[in-house]
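Re: [help] complex structure
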Amino acid sequence: GESVGLHLPTLSVQEGDNSIINCAYSNSASDYFIWYKQESGKGPQFIIDIRSNMDKRQGQRVTVLLNKTVKHLSLQIAATQPGDSAVYFCAENDDAGNKLTFGGGTRVLVKP
Amino acid sequence: NAGVMQNPRHLVRRRGQEARLRCSPMKGHSHVYWYRQLPEEGLKFMVYLQKENIIDESGMPKERFSAEFPKEGPSILRIQQVVRGDSAAYFCASSPNNGGQETQYFGPGTRLLVL
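Output below.
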């Protein structure tokens, strides 16, 4: 079936550097994408979303880029902090809007 | 403004027992979703409900699993005759309106351990 996948399972980054997390999706009909952050023992926390009529969206220290041509999504975290250490998931909303399809996750480890 | 609430946070059951997981959506949200997460994996969709209606249960196992969202009270995910393979974290999410194009906000999850 359709799926969302990530290229890198683990990302180690120095505190203060920028982080980039990538995600590939396969359902060309998907038109809404979300990035979630999940800390150990907690539920996924909404970070930022983007709709398919956009190619870039910025939040506080985070930017999501969407390339529909190659079905690629990325999350950029500026000036990564220890509190950013977590697993990050991209998710797509199916064209019926009923459910989210999650990628496998990327673990971000911030080194002091 | 309380977020999505789930209880219990941890649940231990022996094989063959029943597990009942509860979810109260965010205030003003009328759509509830249940997901299951195995360790080191992403979340897998199970079921989508609105008040008194199951909209999409394509991710629910055919046997032993059921879900409801009554007119009053929380949504319930019920697992009968649990087996060890049911051990996982179960997350509930809610959204305010039409399930499409609306952000889903997640609760803290219930971690089920089947002995």
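Chain A has a mean pLDDT of 89.
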